[in-house]
Amino acid sequence: MPATTTTSHAARRAWHAYRAWRNLPATLVAVGWARLHGVRPVLGPDLLVECAPMPPRTYGRGGTTVGNAWLHGGLGGPARRRHESRHADQYALLGTVPFLALYGLNALLTGNDPARNAFERWAGLADGGYAPSRRTGPGTGRTRTARTATSSSA
Predict the structure, then answer these.
(1) I need a surface site. Which of 85, 89, 112, 140 has the fewest CB within 10 A?
(2) ω into residue 45 within 30 of 0, thus cis?
(3) 108: which residues sit within 8 A by CB, 6+ positions away?
(4) Cβ pair 10, 80 in contact under 8 A
(5) What is the pTM of this model?
């Protein structure tokens, strides 16, 4: 294995460990919520805890990440895992309370349109199952997004 591959793998593992530690309080709350609803959480190699299948109305949109826990009703898969893992990164970088406040403010300012939400865009719209915004008409400056989004973090 080349040195750069080994180094990047070690750096990624170190980040995952730090992220898990930083997000631990929020993760414990989310895992407790999942267990309360009869879900057995599964810890992945990236230390993201997958909690599925959650009952309807116990998570937002098609899935919700809280700290390092990803709660969803069954819409898993590698692309969505990447998307939700990036939300876990956002929690770790900003801290739980600032992240939730900024995510909520961003949702308020964008009309809860995931394609216009900076946090959803950074997490990867396509990986999260979101359609990009499209104009409703020439020169209107207004956007429309498919509301069948399948992923969220707050």
Answers:
(1) 140
(2) no
(3) none
(4) no
(5) 0.82
